[in-house]
Amino acid sequence: DYAKRYWVRKRCEHVQAKILHNLQSCDPAAPFPDQIVPWLFATGLTTHLLLVAGLRNPTVRQRYLAARDLLAEYGHAAFYPALLDLLGCMQWTRAQAEAHLDALAEVFDVAGAVMQSPFPFAADLRPAARPIAIAGSRALIARGAHREAVFWMVATYSRCRLVLDRDAPPALRDRFAPGYARLLGDLGIATFADLDHRCAALPAFLPQVWAVAEAIMAANPAIQE
User: Does residue 102 register a pLDDT over 90?
Assistant: First the structure.
């Protein structure tokens, strides 16, 4: 059905606009975590573009798992590693993910305790969110979806760093800086130049995402009937 496909495609275009907006909002003069967050969410939105094309819920924490299942269902499982490679975790092992999650669990509790300034994501770092941010990630890792846990781990650790940078004393900030650096290093982002390269790679990758999204829309019976 042309009308259905038109509106689904419009929603996909809206997701693409959000991807590009996130990239454009990255301030080269800002601290590193402030630059990581827009890149990370822009990168993660590539899964949303596919999920919208498949009429699936564009979930937040489990977006990569949902995208993996969608691609497998529509015969595009071979494309999934490219999404992980774009994020930088294609080669991650379970042990890597577990080590970073252990580090995140500690900084999560500290950030929640010292947070005083208003943050739009404050609720995600409160004790009530721990079962989702920490236990939820651990559950993904336990079921073999360790790479699918990476996105939300990086998002949460980056937010913790933003809180520590604003509200924690220098000694506490310094205590958790190496763990964050190791996390980003395992994503292949050790310097600002690395991040610039990754930001530039994302728009160049979008045509590939669109090609798969178009194929999913063309094969989706709920759109074609």
Answer: yes
Tell me if 15 sits within 8 A of 52, measured CB to CB: yes
Which of 41, 17, 50 lies closest to 211, judged by CA? Answer: 50
87: region left, alpha or beta (phi > 0 left; psi from -120 to 50 alpha)? alpha
Residue count of the chain? 225
- Does residue 204 contact residue 23 with C-beta atoms inside 8 Å? no
Angle at which helix 192-219 crosses helix 2-24, to 10 degrees, equals 180
Q: Quote the pTM value.
A: 0.94
Radius of gyration, alpha carbons of the chain: 18
Return the pLDDT at 225: 54
Closest among 193, 110, 213 to 156, alpha carbons compared: 110
Q: Write the DSSP symbol of residue 30.
A: S
Averaged pLDDT for residues 29-48: 94
Please give the torsion angle defined by the CA atoms of residues 50, 54, 58 and 64, in that order, rounded to the nearest 10 degrees.
Answer: -50
For residue 77, CA distances in Å to 71, 74, 143, 149, 212 come to 5, 8, 19, 18, 11
3-state SS class at 76: coil
- pLDDT at position 62 is 95
Helix/strand/coil percentages in the chain, nearest 5 = 80, 0, 20
Residue 224 has pLDDT above 70, yes or no: no
Tell me the mean pLDDT in the region 146-154.
98
Tokens 């600002």 label which residue?
192
In this structure, how many other beta carbons lie within 10 angstroms of the beta carbon of residue 215? 15
